Amino acid sequence: MKRTRLGRLLATSVLGLAGRLPLAWGASGWDELNMPRGVTSASRSIYALHMMALWVCVGIAVVVFGVMIWSLIFHRKARGAVPDVTLTHSTKVEVVWTAVPVIILASMAIPAARLLLKINNNADPQVNIRVTGFQWGWRYQYVGSDVSIISKLSASSNAASQLHSGISPTSVPHYLLSVDHKVVVPVGEKVRLLITSVDVIHSWWVPDLGVKRDAIPGYINEVSFTIAANRPGIYRGQCTELCGRGHAYMPIVVRAVTPAAYQAWLKQHSLSRGEAAAHTPAATLTST
Amino acid sequence: MAELLQTAAHAEHDHKPHGWRRWVFATNHKDIGTMYLIAAATMFLIGGLAAMAIRAQLFKSGMKLFDPAMFNSLTTMHGLIMIFGAIMPAWVGLANWMIPLQIGAPDMALPRLNNLSFWILPFAFTLMLASFFVPGGAVAGGWTMYPPLMQQFGAAFPMLIFAIHLMGISSILGAINVIVTIMNLRAPGMTLLRMPLFVWTWLITAYLLIAVMPVLAGAVTMQLTDHFFGTSFFNAAGGGDPVLFLHVFWFFGHPEVYILILPAFGIISEIIPTFSRKPLFGYEAMVYATASIAFLSFIVWGHHMFTVGMPVAAQLFFMLSTMLIAVPTGVKVFNWVATMWRGSLSFEPPMLFAVAFLFLFSIGGFSGLMLALVPSDYQYHGTYFVVAHFHYVLVPGAVFAIFGGVYYWLPKWSGRMYDMRLAKWHFWLSVIFVNVLFFPQHFLGLAGMPRRIPDYAPQFTDWNMVSSIGGFIFGASQVLFPYIVIKCIRSGKPIEANSPWDGAHGLEWELPCPAPYHSWQTPPTEAMLAHGTGH
Questions:
Q1: Whole-number Å distance between alpha carbons of B69 and B63
Q2: In the prediction, which pLDDT does A87 show?
Q3: Which of B247, B277, B424, B451 is catalytic?
């Protein structure tokens, strides 16, 4: 009785899952399973490092799990296996299985260290933007101009995200990943972000840019990226450090445009603010 | 009736107090061990209910059961309950039961301290759980308690900190007791390098506990004084440094994760030889690997903070030191595999859990290695990839080892055999659905879903549903565990021999089943020792 009920439960759930899998893969394919390649040289290099590490791990798993599975199948008592009780120590294999991992690790550490040094280079930026996290949104101030943007969750997402709102998230474009004012950056130019926070710790993350850096009160963190010249577009991310009740509701949306369009946008935005030209961005840094 | 019981008790020569006194005034390591295990199981189920609520909330995009603040409380308390309430007390319970039996000691060295360290816990847990019901609800800043966010919570904040102080005191006292017991009460002839691996791993764990629990206590106390007494340790506006808390917390936090897993290594090292009918391969290498892991655990904390903006040189150092941990951990896995190699394997429930541990803990190790690579970590950090990683090492890692240990030693404790068929159901349901639960979380993290969010963009729905379904079935099947244990104690088949496992070695198996209330009042003989330690 018990067995059949449990069995049925198991069967239904396995079938249910199997039913969902093609859906999961069919919906948007690879994007749902793996890290995005992204649109900066850093994000592409990170993707390559990630895949290299993944395949190394898969390789180790095949060997180690293979030996284990061999034992599980062929060294069973039920098959009459007799234990070899003398097999308790072997300096030779122990040296090998200490040394080989060291070599494998070194082969992963060297490219990782190279990439780390490369992507932490913040020298000679062409565009500087101060990014200030707050509960719950982001402020972007363009250094050298008076342009300043406050970027919060879009009204449509906000309405749908209320408890018992009755609005289906699929009916909202880019639910929880859309903002009222996007931050605009030029493609093909090195953009440096100077990231801080006015209240608690936040973290600015856009997967397609390969950039994640914490926004910490009292600190200004630097991070740089250059979006490939042929990849203008809209790139979305989220805050990745728990920052209270609104943590899920402070997305980041970057609009990457051509340098000419960027200059035009900057100019237009600046003119539209007229009187703001008088005060410097530094003065407004902590006055959200 | 009472008189009859009294007579019966005298007939057993146990001289144990009856009724509530036996438990409140307990000094017997077996009674205290039992209480620890019951407390751990209770907290495991409560923490599990929190997890079910989390998975229900995340079943689909936009569905809202709870307010985001309540959701944050649930994730925070789930973490704290599982770490401090379930896994750590379970290890102390197993240590209490098994260390004296395994080293041939009559009891723990400090029995009254033992009583104190257990009885602190119910107060700590009550305080922690009661914080759900105070104005503002439980603390919702994550189990990592980062300031300044942590400073924003109300009455629950000092309650949680006081609960952590209590749990820390309990852990330190328990660790002192373990060290004193192992150092002083080993049977004659039981040299350090003849000790069972469970004793070894616990000895090293106890040193880790003594080293880092005060660090945690200091970190949370500084938060307390920042909040109530006007200090500015972590307050940037007052000249303090929020990142200092992260450094101090993770200096505790990384050894802490090894506190949660080293005793598991010990149990796996007991179970695999028994059911492979072969001595453990590379015993000494196992001891040294454990000690190396413990040492390395003190110099890798920065890998939890790769995105806070540390100098690149520091990031490099923490990446390399973290990768180094893979070497001794690899040695351990290879030794377990070599123990099974050319053995004579059978798959009773303890072995099933141990084998699952080997596979699934290794998967957690692989994702750990990937997380160590700083550039990749920039993408993984703070996402479900991390959630998947640490749940793989803690659930099919630590928790499966606890299940394996209980199924291994329960016959010794109770003198009865549990229902093997049900225990195998428990295993298969657990091992299948723990993967359904956690494997998709790798995909979610890579695809860009941050952790600790109560709602998510619709493209993450499919894998969250799979994960939630796995979670519900995994959670429901854990109810089998207390049922199997209670059924065994009440009506299991009595065991005649000293050991129900034909391949078991170790002093605990030289004692009758159940182990008498007072065991090893005369030390084991050299013959027992030689048989027990296998060398």
A1: 15
A2: 87
A3: B451
CB pairs under 8 A between A and B: 311
Distance from CA of B257 to the nearest CA of A (A): 21
Q: What's chain A's average pLDDT?
A: 86
A150-168: b (≥16 Cβ within 10 Å) or e: ebbbbebbbebbeeeeebe
- How far apart are alpha carbons B56 and B52 in whole angstroms? 6
Separation CA A110–CA B351 (nearest Å): 39
Domains A34-119 and A127-284 share a fold: no
Concerning whether B170 is annotated as a catalytic residue, the answer is yes
Q: What is the mean pLDDT of residues B374-384?
A: 97
d(CA A97, nearest CA chain B) in Å: 7
Q: What is the mean pLDDT of residues B351-379?
A: 97
Digit-coded pLDDT (tens) for A36-54: 999 999 999 999 999 999 9
Is B4's pLDDT higher than 70?
no
Residues forming beta bridges with residue A192, ordered by sequence position: A128, A224
Q: Is B330–A54 a contact, with Cβ atoms under 8 angstroms apart?
A: no
Residue A277 has pLDDT above 50, yes or no: no
Q: According to the CATH classification, is domain A34-119 in 1.10.287?
A: yes
The tens digit of pLDDT for each residue in B309-358 reads 999 999 999 999 999 999 999 999 999 999 999 999 999 999 999 999 99
Cβ neighbours of A84 in B, within 8 Å: 278, 342-343
Q: Could you read off the pLDDT of A146-199 as tens digits, one per residue?
A: 999 999 999 999 999 998 888 899 999 999 999 999 999 999 999 999 999 999
Q: Which residues of A touch B471 (CB under 8 A)?
A: none
The closest CB to that of B376, out of A50, A94, A248, belongs to A50
Exactly one of B73, B75, B170, B339 is catalytic; which is it?
Answer: B170
pLDDT value for B532: 67
Q: Is the pLDDT of residue B284 over 80?
A: yes
Question: What are the residue ranges spanned by the domains of chain A?
Answer: 34-119, 127-284
A67, A60 Cβ separation under 8 angstroms:
no
For residue B328, what are its two tokens? 């001794």
Whether B164 has a pLDDT exceeding 90, the answer reads yes
Q: What is the pLDDT of residue A273?
A: 55
Tokens representing residue B350 in the block: 């303890």
Query: How many other C-beta atoms are found inside a 10 Å radius of the C-beta of residue B53?
Result: 17
Q: List the A148-151 sheet strands across, edge first.
A: A148-151, A137-142, A127-134, A190-197, A221-226
Q: Which chain B positions have a beta carbon within 8 Å of A245's beta carbon?
A: 67-69, 72, 140
Contact A77/B344, CB-based, under 8 Å?
Answer: yes
Nearest residue in A to B366, CA atom: A57
- Measured from the Cβ of residue A103, the count of other Cβ atoms closer than 10 Å reads 8
- Look up B505 and say whether it is catalytic: no
* pLDDT one-digit tens code per residue, B82-91: 999 999 999 9
Type of residue found at A63: V
Strand extents, DSSP E, B179-311: none
| Separation CA A185–CA A168 (nearest Å) | 32
**B302, HSE (Cβ side, Cα atoms, 13 Å):** 20
Flag if B323 and A105 touch (Cβ within 8 Å).
Answer: yes
Which residue from A6, A97, A176 is facing B331, i.e. has the nearest CB? A97
The CATH H-level superfamily of A127-284 is Cupredoxins -  blue copper proteins (2.60.40.420)
The ipTM value here is 0.92
Cβ–Cβ under 8 Å, residues B534 and B193: no
Pairing assessment for the beta strands B493-494 and B416-417 based on DSSP bridges: antiparallel
H helix or E strand, kind and range, residue B2? helix B2-12
- Return d(Cα A216, Cα B425) in angstroms, integer: 48
H or E segment at B174? helix B156-184
- Say whether pLDDT at A278 is over 50: no
Instruction: Please name every residue paired with A141 in a beta bridge, in sequence order, or none if there are none.
Output: A130, A148
Q: Determine whether B501 is an active site residue.
A: no
CA nearest to B238 within chain A: A218
